[in-house]
Amino acid sequence: MRTFRILTAAAFAATIITGCGSTANIISTPIENIDTIPLKVSELTEAEKHNWGHLDLIKDTIPGMSVDKAYAEIIKGQKGKSVIVAVIDSGIDIDHEDLDDVIWTNTDEIPNNGKDDDKNGYVDDVHGWNFLGDGYDEQLEFVRILANNMTDHPDYERAKAEYEKDYQKYTGLKTNYEQFLQQLSIADEAVSKHLNKSDYTKADVEGIKTEDESLEKAASMIKYVYSLGMDSVSDFKKELKNGIEHFTDRLNANLNKDLKGRVTGDNPDDMSTKYYGNGNVKPVKKSESHGTHVAGIIAAERNNGKGANGVANNVQIMSIRAVPNGDEYDKDIALAIRYAVDNGAKIINGSFGKYYSTHSDWVREAIAYAGKKDVLFVNAAGNESQDLDKKACYPNDQVNNGPEVSDTFITVGALEPKYGTEMIAGFSNYGKINVDVFAPGAKVYSTTPENEYDTKGGTSMAAPAVAGVAALIRSYFPKLKASEVKQILMDSGLAVKTKVIVGGDAENIQPFANLTKSGKMVNAYNALIMASKL
Question: Which candidate in 50, 54, 127, 290 is catalytic?
Answer without folding.
Answer: 290
